């Protein structure tokens, strides 16, 4: 039975992606999503995204206004969702590295667990703030 890269007669991996390009793509997703949302809001929803209750003139939509309208909110959620998956993998990779490095010392092991919990909490907080919108859950 064939195993490894020769499974099903393939000599090469189907997708080859360098770590650097994966990191650059992951880091640039929120920026590209934000630029896309502000552009769409400025072109298609300018009045809705720049209108304020105090009638102050705005020339560009605010970040919260540009990511709260549809389809901009879906673009933003998609970009942050894709951005968060590698962040969870990096948190696990760091934890495994620190766990292997400091397995004999209790204090360092405890700090690596604390670091892992902070990273996971930060990522879940980012997802929670992105996917639970106050506009959608607000009752009038």
From TrEMBL:
Membrane topology of the entry = Multi-pass membrane protein
Statement: the UniProt record of this protein carries the keyword DNA damage = no
Q: What does this protein do?
A: Involved in the fatty acid remodeling steps of GPI-anchor maturation where the unsaturated acyl chain at sn-2 of inositol phosphate is replaced by a saturated stearoyl chain. May catalyze the second step of the fatty acid remodeling, by reacylating a lyso-GPI intermediate at sn-2 of inositol phosphate by a saturated chain. The fatty acid remodeling steps is critical for the integration of GPI-APs into lipid rafts.
Please give the name of this protein: Acyltransferase PGAP2
Q: Where is the CWH43-like N-terminal domain?
A: 22-138
Q: Would you identify the family this protein belongs to, as annotated?
A: Belongs to the PGAP2 family.
Pfam families associated with the record: Frag1 (PF10277)
PANTHER family in the cross-refs: FGF RECEPTOR ACTIVATING PROTEIN 1, POST-GPI ATTACHMENT TO PROTEINS FACTOR 2
Give the UniProt keywords, A-Z.
Golgi apparatus, GPI-anchor biosynthesis, Membrane, Transmembrane, Transmembrane helix
Q: Name one GO biological process term.
A: GPI anchor biosynthetic process
Q: Where are the transmembrane segments?
A: 21-44, 75-97, 109-132
- GO cellular component term, pick one: Golgi membrane
Q: Where in the cell is it found?
A: Golgi apparatus membrane
Q: Where is the signal peptide?
A: none
Mainly localized where? Golgi
**InterPro entries this protein is in?**
CWH43_N, PGAP2
Q: Which organism is it from?
A: Oncorhynchus mykiss
